[in-house]
Amino acid sequence: MTAVVGPAMTAALPPHVRLLLLTDGKRISRVLHVVAELDIAGALADGPLTVAALAERTGTHADALGRVLRVAAAFGVLAEEPDGRYTLTEMGQALRADVPGSQRDMVLYNGDDMLWRSYGELMHTVRTGRPAFEKVYGHGFFEHLERDPAAGALFDRAMTGMSRATSRMLLDSYDFGRFPRLADVGGGRGLFLAELLARHPGVRGTLVDRPAVVDEAPKLLEEAGVADRVEVVPGDFFGELPAGRDAYVLKAVLHDWDDERAAAILRRIHEALRDVPEGRLLICEFLVGPANDWDRGKLLDLDMLVRFGGRERGEDQWRALLATAGFELVNEPVAGRWAVLECRPVPDAR
User: Fold this and answer.
1) Distance of CA 219 to the CA centre of its chain
2) Residue 222: Cβ within 10 Å count
3) Are 64 and 107 contacting, i.e. CB atoms less than 8 angstroms apart?
4) What's the rounded Cα separation, in Å, for the pair 104 and 81?
5) What is the DSSP letter of 333?
6) What pTM was computed for the model?
7) For residues 230-239, b (16+ Cβ closer than 10 Å) or e, as one string?
8) DSSP 195-243
9) What is the pLDDT of residues 314-323, one digit of tens each?
């Protein structure tokens, strides 16, 4: 029987026990990180194994490993069979590296020192408003990714996996094919734009990002069969952008920045749309839900805060930010999930 983590699992417990259970998150997270780093899911892909066999495969201490696996089973990631062997659950399958929708790299990233140590200094951020990451490492997050190639590679793999999942969700929920000429600003190597163009053969795209990033785009675009419909433009979303496209996409860009810097990016988009009366800005972000409701965006917001001072936003926050840059929201995105915010420029606004 697979355990259910959440209110249904804890409802029968006394309030003080439920409170203490919340503090167990750090324990559970470290267990998952160990299971992912040892690739236990990969070892179990062909069927159940004993703790002794898993310890031999992973070069670990059998008793200590067994106690970690017992916790993973208590939360439904693994299942312990009557004979003591462990097997993968449906949830645990997502820790395999070789399956569609694998979450292994994201679990490894969430448990990596660059995020784990930052949360250890959350109080610094609460007292100062400054990113905890900078206190821990003495430099900014993106500088760290450049200094530490292994950290940079892990971050890239985790974000690529997340982008694949969110791209499908966004493309299923919104008709990007309405716009014949579309620019993906800060679009990285073009993963989202490639999937969008593959779905909409009548659309032509422009990919804008830093030179070192877009240098890697042609191969991906060629493999996706859309290179002949993409103009790759090295650039900076704080600088001048290619003008005159029918729509400009900002996917998972603005949450990296505080309101002042996010507004500066939005003003650049506004300038690029100056001569496109029916042009649109399409913001693809996690839309934080109402107060007291659970949604993962409220945790992602803390990630943004402790890493580099960015934020996830709710609809009211988006409307206020958009207004400062001369835009207005024209659709009704669903809160508590990844969403497309369709925005139009207010004439003559700056």
Assistant:
1) 23
2) 13
3) no
4) 23
5) P
6) 0.88
7) bebeebebee
8) HHHHH-TT-EEEEEE-HHHHTTHHHHHHHTT-GGGEEEEE--TTS----
9) 999 999 999 9
